[in-house]
Amino acid sequence: MINNLIDLLNYDNIYLIANYGVLPFWLLLIILPTHGLTNFLVQSIFVPFILASAYCFVAYNIFIDENILDSFELYLGLDGLYSMFSNEAFLLTFWIHFLALSLFLGAWIVRDSNKYMVPRFITIISLIITYFTGPIGLFVYWFFRIFFSKKISFND
């Protein structure tokens, strides 16, 4: 039975599960940002733990199947990064990394917008931009947040 599960956990399936799996959590952040279910699922360790499990599984497969020294190509320049991304296992780890951090960032935006009473429309726009572009959504949110917090704060 475990072998059947491992056969199902190929990189394509992990990618699809991770991609479609985060969508309900983003929808919870957008539609029901203060609901108890959102707090339990999105604002807790639940989703990062699931994504971290997938990340560890792929990293373990990289360790077993690949030359781990190839991962240091990343630091040799843009060509090294490009060659790393040509390997689907490394590309998948970076994508899971992006999904986890973007969702964490979205959860922070929701908590912070509640704290400073930022209008829901601005929060929703920021969340959508964060879903697609990560840091740009944070910048958009931070720019509007200045007007509601009445201060420019670079750390919080």
- Secondary structure: number of strands: 0
Series of secondary-structure elements, N-terminal to C-terminal = HHHHHHHH
Instruction: Please state the structural category.
Output: mainly alpha
What is the residue-averaged pLDDT? 87
How many domain units?
1
Report helical residue fraction. over 70%
Low-confidence stretches: none
Biggest beta sheet attributes = none
Instruction: Report the portion of residues in β strands.
Output: under 5%
Shape: globular
Rg of Cα set: 18 Å
How far is the N terminus from the C terminus?
47 Å
Per DSSP, the total helix count is 8
Question: Would you give an account of this structure?
Answer:
The protein is mainly alpha-helical. It has helices at residues 2-8, 11-31, 36-41, 46-65, 78-85, 88-116, 120-133, 135-149. The protein has one domain (2-149). Helix content is 77%, strand content 0%. It is globular and about 50 Å long.
Brief digest:
This protein is mainly α and 156 residues long. Helix content is 77%, strand content 0%.
Provide the descriptors you would attach to this structure in a database record:
single chain, 156 residues, mainly alpha, 8 helices
Strand and helix layout:
Blueprint: H1 2-8, H2 11-31, H3 36-41, H4 46-65, H5 78-85, H6 88-116, H7 120-133, H8 135-149
Helix pairs in contact: 2-4, 2-6, 4-6, 6-7, 6-8, 7-8
